[in-house]
Predict the structure.
Amino acid sequence: MPSLSVYQTVWALASLLLWNGFMNASPALATEHAVTVDLDTEHQVMDNFGASDCWSMQLIGGWSLENRNRIADLLFSTTDGIGLSCWRFNLGAGKTDDIRDPLRTAETFEISEGVYDWSRQANEQWFLGAAKARGVEQFVAFVNSPPARMTRNGLTRCTPDVGTTNLKEGYEGQFARYLADILEHFRDHPDEALRIEFDWVSPVNEPQWGWNGNSQEGNRASNDDIKAIVLALHAELASRGLRTSISVVESGSMADMFLKNFKASYTYNHTYGNYLDAFCGDPAVNDKIGNKISAHSYWFDLVPSKLVPTRQKLREQLDQYPGWQYWMTEYCVMQGPEGKGGHGRDLTMDTALDVARVIHYDLAISNASAWQWWLAVSPYDYKDGLIYTDYHKEGDPETIYPSKLLWTLGNYSRFIRPGAVRVDLRGADESDGLLGSAYKDANANELILVFVNMAQTEKAVSLQLENLSEGRLPNAFTPYITSEQDDLKAYPYAPAGTTYTVPARSVVTLVGGFESTNPDKQASLAK
């Protein structure tokens, strides 16, 4: 048996090929990658992986119980689904005929100031309870627009004449009370199944966009508008003893995190964008938003011009504010790696791999500690859903189409649980080839490796571990594969000590632990 010091520095993973005949595959077919994981070089602590209930859950929550449960299992179960660890619950602004798509607006709990109908959003509430029942522990309540009675034009979307924001002047306090009333209701809900203390509330969404069209609910807000909302909301939450944190700014552009949005700033004659300096750097508000700031990855997935350089710049600017976390809170394919846009539903590995590459770089370059998809379920012919349906109205068949993207996200979400720490991985950083990232769980008892193979050929991986704790050896790893053939399928244990080959056009997660070389320790563990 080799000495312990050898194990501490050299660790080859088992072959990662499809089980049907992969043991006989020729190693010459795979390009070998020497990959090194440094267990002592730690990056971000992971908070969660999530998705939102917008807006299809208002329909799907009324389906048959069997099909509702199937959707919930696919999203939230850590055995039968992808094990999302965060659920984004939309607080609707009120159904209105002004929004041309009825699935891009939702009911509001509010009847009038301080008066609520808690039976509203019943279908969305069912999925809120389903998430909790399946072990989801982190919840975000988010807003696209204030209720119509609080807006300057009486609508739940903007018009050019309302100014910097559609929230009525001086209504920050009422808006804060409205949000706190909802949070308090769920915290103290009479039904334990729906008794949820939301971890975060997000009062604005993509505030630099004009939202003047009638395609969906939306509200712009200048930096000063957002700060006024934050101050009022923070005071209201504190006065009620609500532990919910405020999440901002949900920037619709990664670049606007470090650049001023000149179009919005010029149009409305107030500053929009440059959010890192405006919020992380402002002592009037930076202690009121939980040392966390968020953006969306839309429009910055073009390869090679935007995907990597924008995230490098974002990280560089974030590093000027030590201790601040970055969350990626919304994404679907709107541009894509080749600029072809997001039109056309795609259930295949094509979109799944494109998105897996975005996830990888958001985590490995931007150091995002949360990664959250847009629509959990989509009825559209667009690359915006994890699960798709053709259901649009009562009486339609309750169709359910899980995508490869669903399972690819699961390669991350099911295994990288809250509290896990990303550690350094070198040797797998090819935007059109092999990408890899590594994580150890909160107790450092488990190592999770995620490999994305964008290429048409398999990739062989030999692995070195650096700074493996004395007295510990790597144990066998379980591979979970998502490919055109497999949906997050578990394969037999892969023993340590041989080269591991990642199939072409696949996403693979290796999950394994460690064993002690101390006989007394082994005996103790056996008890």
